[in-house]
Amino acid sequence: RERTTGTLERLGATPIKRFEIVLGYLIGFGIFTIVQSAIISAFSIYILKIYNIGNLGLILLISTIIALCALSFGMFVSSYANNELQVMQFVPIVIVPQIFFCGLFSTRTMAEPLQVLSKCMPLTYDSNSIRGILTCLYYLQKIRGGLLVLIGFKIVFDILNIIILKNNI
Hints:
The protein is mainly alpha-helical. It has eight helices and no strands. It has helices at about 1-5, 5-10, 20-45, 55-80, 85-105, 110-120, 120-135, 140-169. Helix 4 (about 55-80) packs antiparallel against helix 7 (about 120-135), helix 4 runs parallel beside helix 8 (about 140-169) and helix 5 (about 85-105) packs across helix 6. It is globular and about 55 Å long. About 20% of the residues are buried.
């Protein structure tokens, strides 16, 4: 909506740097995202009684990182939309494949290119880490690789958001 109301153009005329605009969005929405992921994780484990033998702190850590990664990814995707309707049209193209390739369904029986494609999606690393913590008692050392990949995705999406913002202003 910032594009349709001219907010981005007005921000572009100020001495504020692009990374400061992106950082402001990420901090503002990130606070809500972190609180929301903590509530959902706690609700799932304590109210819905999802099987868990792992550490709740690690679950919250992974949930927070994937939520922040999703926020950055959502900002990136929305940069290509001209209005809210177009953002909603991106959902089947962007989100649905991640659900199919994240490990919810076995990827071992899929064709080799699809297995490689699944490794290019953040949700794959999230689901592997969460599943390992919940069911196999994974600890921080065991999920470190997936955690670093998720942080890498987050950083890449943040950098892409800064680059894309230059084209939108």
